[in-house]
Amino acid sequence: MHELSTQLGGDAPELTVGERVYWTVPVVFTLPGKGVLGRVGTLRVDAGTGELLTDPQTEQEMMRHAEQLAQRAALPTGI
After folding, report:
1. Is residue 41 within 8 Å of residue 55, measured between CB atoms?
2. Which of 37, 47, 55, 75 pairs as cysteine with 69 (C-beta 3.0–4.6 A)?
3. Which residues contact 64 (CB under 8 A, 6 or more apart)?
4. Tell me: the pLDDT tens digits for 20-78?
5. pLDDT greater than 50 at residue 2
C-alpha cells in the first residue's frame, strides 16, 4: 500500500468481530487545495497483528477509482 499514493488516506474505521477481528477502513482520495474528493475503496486490517488483508486486485481498483476522481477534479468547471 505504500506504493499506491500519498494522496490516499483512511477515514473512520469500524471494528468487525467474527472468526477474525479486523478493522474496516474506508480509503479516501485527496488533492491539495481541494480536500477529500471521494472514497476509492475499503481496506481490512487484522486488529491483533496489523496485517493488511488485501490483494492486488483491490489495490488496482482503488488506484483506478483515484485516477477517475483526479481526472474529474481536473475538468474545467461548467462542463
Report:
1. no
2. 37
3. none
4. 999 999 999 998 888 899 999 999 999 999 999 988 899 899 989 988 998 888 766 65
5. no
- Whether the pLDDT of residue 1 is over 50: the answer is no
From residue 47, give the alpha-carbon distance in Å to each of 14, 22, 39, 60, 68.
11, 5, 22, 24, 31
57/67 Cα distance (integer angstroms): 15
CA geometry: angle at 44 spanning 9 and 22, to 5°? 125
- What letter represents residue 75's amino acid? L
Cell numbers of 5, please? 499514493
